[in-house]
Amino acid sequence: MTVLVRLGVGPLSAVARAAIPSIWRGKYFSSGNEPAENNPVTPMLRHLMYKIKSTGPITVAEYMKEVLTNPAKGYYVYRDMLGEQGDFITSPEISQIFGELLGIWFISEWMATGKSTAFQLVELGPGRGTLVGDILRVFTQLGSVLKNCDISVHLVEVSQKLSEIQALTLTEEKVPLERNAGSPVYMKGVTKSGIPISWYRHLHDVPKGYSFYLAHEFFDVLPVHKFQKTAQGWREVFIDIDPQVSDKLRFVLAPSATPAEAFIQHDETRDHVEVCPDAGVIIEELSQRIALTGGAALVADYGHDGTKTDTFRGFCGHKLHDVLIAPGTADLTADVDFSYLRRMAQGKVASLGPIKQHIFLKNMGIDVRLKVLLDKSNEPSVRQQLLQGYDMLMNPKKMGERFNFFALLPHERLQGGRHQRNARQSKPFASLVAGFSELAWQ
Ligand SMILES: C[S@@+](CC[C@H](N)C(=O)[O-])C[C@H]1O[C@@H](n2cnc3c(N)ncnc32)[C@H](O)[C@@H]1O
């Protein structure tokens, strides 16, 4: 606990956060069957109708990919959708404590695996850069612990707009940014605390090397294929133009088997499933990297362990939104299937979790950290915001139960590699991974 207490001294105190709307993306489900009273013909709808008229109905995965990340019109590409004024709120935007505890997690793993002389912090889908900013503040606070370690930050982001916001948040552009839109490293700079930082569109462009990877509310935006069990076997759900209503889309079933069926387990018992091949590709890449060069990956998201059926939904202005209405104006998301992530990592690295957010944060010492911040603040509005943020993150009826933590680690980490065992330790190492058990400094 020494480190947490030390965080409470020095300039680090409560950091201003937006007011907390009562809705978050993990919350409700939408089937896309709501009436289309208000269905403006957006540029994205026009694009999709043209596409469907030219080549036929599209899969839900293709729809999600076009709507969210089409380079010209995608929802994520040109807007800031996070926070009070946007469409949804995420944990790092709610409370600084969230990112601080994740910063502690990475330091704890770095210490447990032998304090390498360098590491890369890699975040997938960093939003406004708030989370990595909170993590880097912890790294600065613990400068004496990390003093002989060369750290670099690598952000994987498809959004031009969000990458600009990240750059502003993290670098304050004191040192001019290097930009090269045509290069796999499309932006480079130096953070406020002097750490080199680079931006990429794809994980495979990030240099290989000892790294800690972070994906918070990233896997849920990756495209899913939807399937329904029929008397003829699995049939994929497609999106077509509604012949009854002009400028409206509708769900239809494929008349025959489609290739993505290969991603459904042979012993699947559900009658509707969502599969996310892109998530599998990313988990395989992370697993190979971690097995080869060490480090760890921490994934936090809402999801299930291979049990849920229909989770594809939309959010706009902090409200549930019909996924087929006004595409390009609302966020689309689907719960993460952690059982699939675990299968994709199997044999290459060890995995831990998913465990509920309230358990993970409790194990990381959220109560101690909250107390330190409350003790330091006399401002009633700041104290109220800290308490409200804590409730939102921890309350099992709010984000506490819906969000999960999942980690990928080298097998040696759990078996006790050469850096990890000392004569007094007799417990299996799995119990010593912070968050998945109580934080303990070694
Ligand atoms: C739901 S937001 C989460 C943001 C942030 N992690 C947070 O929790 O506040 C998803 C993030 O992933 C990015 N993103 C979406 N699809 C992506 C993709 N295929 N590759 C890289 N980034 C992507 C978005 O631009 C955004 O930054």
TrEMBL record:
It comes from the Eukaryota. Arginine methyltransferase involved in the assembly or stability of mitochondrial NADH:ubiquinone oxidoreductase complex (complex I). Acts by mediating symmetric dimethylation of 'Arg-118' of NDUFS2 after it assembles into the complex I, stabilizing the early intermediate complex. The gene is NDUFAF7. This is Protein arginine methyltransferase NDUFAF7. Belongs to the NDUFAF7 family. It is an enzyme of class 2 (transferase). Interacts with NDUFS2. One of its GO terms (cellular component) is mitochondrion. PANTHER family: PROTEIN ARGININE METHYLTRANSFERASE NDUFAF7, MITOCHONDRIAL (PTHR12049:SF7). GO terms for molecular function: enzyme binding; protein-arginine omega-N symmetric methyltransferase activity. The keyword Zinc-finger does not apply. The lineage of its organism: Eukaryota, Metazoa, Chordata, Craniata, Vertebrata. One of its GO terms (biological process) is methylation. Its main location: mitochondrion. It is found in: Mitochondrion. The keyword Cell inner membrane does not apply.
